[in-house]
Design goal:
Immunoglobulin-like; 43% strand; six-stranded mixed β-sheet
Length: 129
């Protein structure tokens, strides 16, 4: 599932109960890394987050992954659980060469970003040969 936002930016929600949300942390790649066109990253979440994806029967707060202006809402089966609260996610869109910003965060039922949960990293996608 893809969701595009205009250059004026996405709506941002503030939530008073972010302490109840599983903390998110991007582990790999590290900010500033050079990566290939198939963007893959590893992140950590404090809890099992399968019920906090768009494949849940009743998604409320759910996971968003964004690269620049493209937002993805991974389904549980698109996340590979590596154990210890670590997950692997591979974008289903190839990235164009150049500098990109990747964001990982929780969003409310209206897909508004819960700003306190945003994790960001900058990468450079190398040109394929």
């Amino acid at each position: 599932m893809h969701h595009m936002h205009g250059s004026d930016g996405a709506p941002v929600a503030r939530s008073g109960n972010t302490r109840e949300l599983p903390a998110l942390k991007i582990l790999l790649p590290q900010s500033g890394s050079t990566i290939g066109e198939r963007v893959a990253f590893v992140f950590q979440a404090d809890d099992n987050i399968a019920e906090m994806t768009m494949s849940s029967a009743n998604p409320s707060v759910h996971l968003h992954v964004a690269m620049d202006e493209t937002e993805l809402m991974p389904m549980a089966d698109q996340l590979t659980q590596l154990g210890d609260g670590h997950y692997l996610y591979v974008f289903d869109l190839p990235a164009k060469p150049g500098r990109h910003t990747i964001r990982l965060y929780w969003a409310d039922p209206q897909h508004h970003t819960i700003s306190e949960t945003v994790q960001t990293l900058n990468v450079v996608v190398k040109e394929s040969k």
